[in-house]
């Protein structure tokens, strides 16, 4: 678990303890304030604007309607907003594609929630909250695929495996599976899934909850080959904010509070499948 931000620490003490960038300094000034409920310096006064992609997939969202509060990430977004003092009626949703979210530049949202893994490279372009979900990646296929009975990483060496571009699912292929065949790259999971159905790839890597949903609801004879065990804290989804946002510390504090009081676990238990039926591939 990330260390909770202690708002009561003096700014002078923190300055003496670390060497700060301008961005970090801005965060500390926010941390030293009270993060006054419902009165943050948001894009639109009195309203908090949340971004996510379109389409917004299950189990993260439901029926491609982020504003309905259904699905893991929709529920998380509303829980964070409430923690910050913004009731559901004061939450405004905007569309923001994954690729634009992780690029540098001013964002059209206060924070974005879109299964974005926290990485060092992405931190150069955007701010992240602390992690709200610990991620495992998984490999899915169909019962007729040549890798349907794979049990080990060695069984995947000659497989053609795909993933969405710019994702940690793709780096799982190149860094963990390391097949001899060059991996396939797709604009999104819908395109990748169709390629799997067409037999153009042998398997598709996605995060584990998505793997359960796709194999159960969207693929005929779909199955999970297995998951890839992450090291503790090695991959987490975080809320994305503009680089240097004055809201980052407050949003992080909200996520940390939800983790500490058990809300993150409760929301995950409601909306995400368990890991049963997804053996670890080694």
Give an account of the 3D structure.
The chain is α/β, with parallel strands linked by helices and 282 residues long. Helices cover 32% and strands 19% of the residues. Helix 3 packs across helix 9 and helix 3 runs antiparallel to helix 10. The longest helix has 13 residues. The chain is elongated, with a radius of gyration of 20 Å. The N terminus is likely disordered.
In short:
The chain is 32% helix and 19% strand.
Query: How many individual domains?
Result: 2
Radius of gyration: 20 Å
Number of helices: 10
The first-level CATH class name of the largest domain? Alpha Beta
Can you tell me the overall shape?
Answer: elongated
**Annotation, overall tally of beta strands:** 10
The CATH superfamily of the largest domain is identified as Periplasmic binding protein-like II
Please summarize the sheet with the most strands: 5 strands, mixed
Assembly state of the chains shown: single chain
Share of helix, binned: 25-40%
CATH architectural category of the largest domain: 3-Layer(aba) Sandwich
**Which fold name corresponds to the CATH topology of the largest domain?**
D-Maltodextrin-Binding Protein, domain 2
What pattern of helices and strands is seen along the backbone? Answer: HHEHEHEHEEEHEHEHEEHH
The secondary structure category is: alpha/beta
């Amino acid at each position: 678990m990330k260390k909770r931000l202690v708002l009561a620490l003096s700014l002078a003490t923190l300055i003496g303890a670390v060497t700060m960038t301008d961005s970090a300094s801005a965060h500390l000034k926010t941390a030293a304030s009270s993060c006054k409920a419902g009165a943050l310096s948001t894009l639109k006064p009195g309203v908090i604007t949340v971004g996510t992609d379109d389409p917004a997939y299950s189990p993260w969202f439901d029926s491609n309607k982020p504003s309905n509060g259904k699905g893991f990430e929709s529920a998380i977004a509303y829980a964070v907003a409430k923690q910050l003092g913004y009731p559901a009626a004061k939450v405004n949703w905007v569309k923001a594609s994954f690729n634009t979210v992780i690029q540098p530049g001013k964002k059209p949202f206060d924070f974005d929630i879109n299964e974005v893994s926290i990485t060092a490279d992405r931190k150069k372009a955007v701010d992240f909250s602390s992690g709200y979900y610990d991620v495992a990646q998984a490999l899915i296929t169909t019962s007729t695929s040549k890798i349907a009975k794979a049990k080990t990483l060695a069984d995947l060496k000659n497989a053609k495996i795909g993933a969405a571009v710019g994702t940690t699912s793709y780096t799982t292929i190149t860094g963990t599976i390391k097949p001899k065949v060059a991996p396939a790259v797709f604009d999104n999971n819908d395109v990748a899934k169709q390629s799997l159905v067409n037999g153009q790839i042998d398997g598709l890597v996605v995060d584990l909850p998505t793997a359960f949903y796709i194999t159960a609801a969207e693929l005929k004879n779909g199955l999970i080959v297995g998951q890839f065990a992450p090291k503790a804290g090695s991959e987490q989804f975080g809320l994305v904010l503009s680089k240097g946002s004055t809201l980052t510390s407050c949003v992080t504090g909200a996520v940390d509070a939800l983790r500490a009081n058990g809300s993150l676990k409760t929301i995950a238990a409601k909306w995400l499948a368990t890991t049963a039926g997804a053996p670890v591939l080694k």
